[in-house]
Design brief:
The structure is a homodimer.
Chain A: H1 5-9, E1 14-17, E2 40-43, H2 47-60, E3 63-67, E4 83-87, E5 94-98, E6 103-107, H3 112-120, E7 124-125, H4 138-144, H5 151-154, E8 161-167, E9 173-177, H6 189-193, E10 202-209, E11 211-212, E12 217-224, H7 227-239, E13 246-251, H8 252-262, E14 271-278, H9 282-294, E15 299-303, H10 306-324, E16 328-331, E17 334-335, H11 341-354, E18 358-364, E19 369-376, H12 383-400, H13 416-423, H14 425-438
Parallel strand pairs in A: 2-4, 3-4
Antiparallel strand pairs in A: 1-2, 5-6, 6-10, 7-11, 8-9, 8-10, 12-14, 12-15, 13-14, 13-18, 16-19, 17-19, 18-19
Helix pairs in contact in A: 7-9, 7-11, 8-10, 11-12, 13-14
Chain lengths: ~450, ~450
């Protein structure tokens, strides 16, 4: 099972074999790496390279592991023995931007930030904004159906995907979807491939919905004594019919760590919430957010100008890097019904105590999407197994509260054992049947996602 | 192939056979009825009846045609020889309404209007609003991924579906999706079944996203001399970053017919556009809509109070019933990129002339979704074949302009021949493979959708 030199010459892009493959290609940002060495790495230069890589791997009996920027958090792009790694980050052209139709056609390796910047030139924006926006590829964002900070108003990556170009297991190129705002012809293949984590085909291009840049943006933040009133304030904002573009929560220690990293002598609090409103009603909504927060705390701050808004948001964005100073981090990604946010945060605090682990929680309160960050000190060999056990309890908690094990990072390798517990045997069987129908020989990402 | 009397007794709901089945059950609102008589009709009283109907039909060698209110427009619920009609409209309970989590769990037979009314009691609404909202069932809305007037801001039915309960071909009950705002665990089965037109399973219940009732709603209408400036005005509104909740267009004759039906001596015009803005920015957006319309016509009307708004909207809602006075109507449903609306309307006018057919066009300009209505006089035997030929040219036009053959009604029987022309052989093969994987014996709705 090695790639013949003649096959290598057929590619326009670079091909590496065995020991020549850099170690970084075996893993993603989760740090998970399977045993064994990958057979080949194809740095695809175009769609023909992708098709050739798929058929070549099939003929050689290798599996295909597709990769964009390698910024995944669930091990979905990790590659081990017997695999051909197919890096599509070189397919990075914006093929079309049609302002009147509010859409763009891009290759899979384009970053969301690059597309957003190009759209901005036409008064438009690409709404999905995963934290990795500057580095991750849109192909990877689609493969994981990535979320981000603006989902509460603008939805997840999938809500912006109108159509896809996908290379199938037989090397054929499939076009799904449409260029129109609506369309219901046939089964929704676009949504099926979105979030499929590399197990059904290789996404090589996408038709994406753009939106107007919001006409106004206002930031409102508040410090609360405890998590309960913070969660209640978030619920009250939504019940007041406000649709914030962002509604983020940090627990006590996430706030402290973030302030410490930024070197600001900020206020201490049991919880911190930062909201943004935008659009034609931004001012009225921001006033109502501030008033509503004021029913739960006296410490409300409104950022009217971009600088003040940036300072309030910086705390939220600093939360993860601040924790990464203290060791390896397990970035978890549960979602609970919004009414259960406070219960989930409290329960995570108990789990941390029970496993002598440090777990800080922040996340997208507007969606009920929490990121408990388990810090694993590098000098404590017993900390990692404790962290894994704590993560399992966090998943169990999410399910007990009516939630899910992943809101935006995917199942990958790391949460595979939990999928059937969440969805039941009929759902797993149905998904496996679809996988077999599209990839009968198990070419794509075996051992992942399902 | 008849249903044994013993099998009939096992159902809680009513079962009819052969000649006892009312003729209306053989067709839907499209008027299409296949040849041959259906074998049995099961009026399901609960999920067990649905499961029993599926396994009984499979054992007896019958196909299963699922049906809600029978308000479909593409023949998807039409039933002929060898079929068991499974009517799920009796499953009509709202099982849960959770205001804090902004969701409802309903059985498939509930109407969208009934759910919306119940949600209103909690300050919430169910956003999807197909024209058939008062009579159609949510199960049918999901099976066709139905649209409506508010899609331009709030999306289609699928955008409100969080999870489904589906009876599969083996009679097993599948739960898909989640109760949370986000969630990416596993393949997106929820979207796969949404819009699947009864070919993959029987939708028996759904978890649906609710939204706050908009805080304010303002209606703006305008009369234009021709279709081109009307379409340009719609494009200008969207380019001005307004997100209207509704943006509807009527051509000259649709306007005249609607005014005639309503008995109002309205203004004549080459095109009529009615927009609604809502939410915290409704007033600012309405002002900008009126100003933008004013750049293309001097005849702009703003409906500030509900009564005035209702009068402006009534014209739009009267357009279809007005045309139904003149004969059988073929209700087409194309979508074009928004930049092609004027081109599409002009082309449809030419097609009407070429086929000596009466075709009036109105639709959802904000989405580029047009409903050309072909009127077939009942006293002209040659009008129907001409209408069908004209419809084919309309489909071809949609594809030429980069659009789709159906925006919200589905493929059913009537547009099957066009699906491959729109999507290509790889997309059709992929969809067929998924259909076989989930329904290997072709039990569900054979001859439909694909």
């Amino acid at each position: 099972m090695t790639l013949p030199t003649t096959a290598m010459r057929a590619f326009t892009g670079t091909v590496l074999r065995g020991k020549d493959i850099p170690a970084a290609y075996r893993t993603d940002r989760s740090g998970y790496a399977p045993t064994g060495e990958p057979e080949a790495l194809v740095l695809a230069a175009n769609v023909d390279d992708v098709r050739r890589a798929v058929t070549t791997a099939a003929e050689a009996g290798m599996s295909v592991v597709v990769r964009g920027a390698g910024s995944g958090l669930a091990g979905g792009a990790a590659a081990g023995a017997g695999s051909l790694i197919l890096d599509v980050s070189g397919l990075n052209r914006i093929l079309e931007l049609a302002p009147a139709d509010e859409l763009a056609v891009v290759e899979a390796g384009v970053s969301a930030a690059a597309l957003d910047a190009e759209a901005n030139r036409h008064g438009l924006c690409y709404a999905p904004d995963p934290a990795s926006i500057a580095i991750s590829t849109i192909g990877g964002n689609i493969a994981t159906n990535a979320g981000g900070l603006r989902c509460v108003k603008y939805g997840v990556t999938g809500d912006a995907v109108l159509g896809l170009d996908v290379v199938l297991a037989d090397g054929q190129l499939l076009h799904t979807g449409r260029r129109t705002a609506k369309g219901v012809a046939g089964l929704d293949l676009t949504s099926l491939f979105t979030g499929s984590e590399g197990i059904l085909g290789v996404i090589v291009a996408a038709t994406l919905r753009l939106r107007p840049v919001p006409i106004d943006t206002i930031t409102v933040a508040a410090y609360f004594d405890e998590v309960e009133p913070a969660a209640a304030a978030c619920a009250a904002v939504l019940a007041a019919r406000v649709r914030p573009a962002m509604l983020e929560l940090l627990d006590e220690s996430s706030l402290r760590e973030a302030q410490d990293l930024l070197g600001v002598r900020g206020e201490s609090a049991g919880a911190f919430v930062v909201a943004q409103t935008d659009g034609f009603g931004a001012r009225a909504e921001a006033d109502l957010v501030a008033k509503t927060f004021g029913e739960f705390t006296s410490r409300v701050r409104v950022g009217d100008d971009p600088e003040a808004a940036g300072e309030l948001l910086a705390v939220r964005r600093a939360a993860l890097p601040a924790l990464e100073r203290h060791g390896r981090v397990l970035i978890e990604d549960i979602v609970v019904p919004r009414s259960q946010i406070a219960a989930a945060v409290r329960r995570i605090t108990e789990i941390a105590a029970g496993y002598h682990s440090r777990i800080n929680t922040f996340g997208h309160a507007g969606d009920g999407n929490l990121h408990p960050i388990i810090v694993v000190p590098r000098d404590d060999a017993r900390a990692y197994p404790r962290a894994v056990a704590a993560a399992d309890e966090i998943f169990a908690t999410a399910l007990e509260l009516g939630g899910t094990i992943t809101g935006e990072h995917g199942v990958g390798v790391l949460k595979r054992a939990w999928l059937e517990r969440e969805q039941g045997p009929a759902a797993l069987r149905t998904q496996q049947a679809i996988r077999r129908a599209l990839d009968p020989n198990g070419l794509f990402n075996p051992g992942k996602a399902l």
